[in-house]
Amino acid sequence: MIEQLIKTPFTELVGVKHPIVQTGMGWVSGPRLVSGTANAGGLGILASATMTFAELDAAIIETKKRTDKPFGVNLRADAGDAGARCDLLIEHGVKVASFALAPKPELIAKLKEHGIVVMPSIGAAKHAKKVAAWGADAVMVQGGEGGGHTGPVPTTLLLPTVLDAVDIPVVAAGGFFDGRGLAAALSYGAAGVGMGTRFLLTRDSAVPDAVKELYLSHDLNGTVVTAKVDGMPHRMLRTPLVDELEETSAVKRMGPTLKRTLEFKKTSGMSWAELAKDGRAMKKTQGRTLAQMTLAANTPVMLKAGLVEGDTSAGVLASGQVVGVIDDLPSCEELIERIVVRAADELRRASSYVL
After folding, report:
1. Could you tell me the residue range of the domain that residue 37 belongs to?
2. Count of CB atoms within 10 A of residue 195's CB?
3. What integer pLDDT is reported at residue 208 of this predicted model?
4. Are 337 and 294 contained in the same domain?
5. How far is 333 from 32, CA to CA, in rounded Å?
6. Helix, strand, or coil here: 130?
């Protein structure tokens, strides 16, 4: 592993060598990828939303066997067992708790009392101000170029508004894949970058090789944002299945949707009452309609089919637009080293312009 070349408020806060975060991608960010990132000096984040409580416990234990470096866990703040999962992070001494939605102030306070860094993901400056006021240590902001659930505003416009709104470390995500991007984010004032698709396309990722090759075959027009999978804007690869979903009516999608809901219930181990409770939480925190909540179980099931089972005819593949400029499968160590070295070179070059 290369020496530290760039020190930022984020590296100091979390205790990592390099200001690079591997984001918590469902079915992708498991112990192998997270530990590979951590051992290379970045911050790896386990994705727990697609794990049962017992699976998360086992994943944390396995990750700790693979690395003695800091790592994080991504949590659903509106999950019925969010409190119990936070207790699990405390028990295992996990360094970072990241959240897809804003956690309640009391949950933030509890985690901080036990020395855990709290980093929610946000999509607007007003949300960043809110969680910062509640005690969040850092925020991750993802622009519209990012994969998975995403918003319409590009990173280059969203990032400055968030930086102007808060004085805590900001990690920029959405559209980053190389050292030039890291240098640009740091020049804006960010304290690091978060990357999902770029880490998915590494040798340390457990995604089937055939699926990785499919990703690599797509160009800059190879993704689409659709709400037909789970009712919320979701950026994913253009595939025949996604094209079919885009053209199919809601009535025709209802049968497969109900089938996937039953499959999700089975794999998650949740009761109908627990599913209903989660649905009410989504409605309250995300403002989802009944139709959107009905579709919500589609995402984990269809992502698993594509990213775990390699069945692209039945599964969807979340992806950022950067897929169109990625053409190789390095290890996490190789990827992080070349990003940091290039970023340092670019920052030195840029500083030479200053009189």
Report:
1. 9-207+327-351
2. 29
3. 96
4. no
5. 13
6. helix
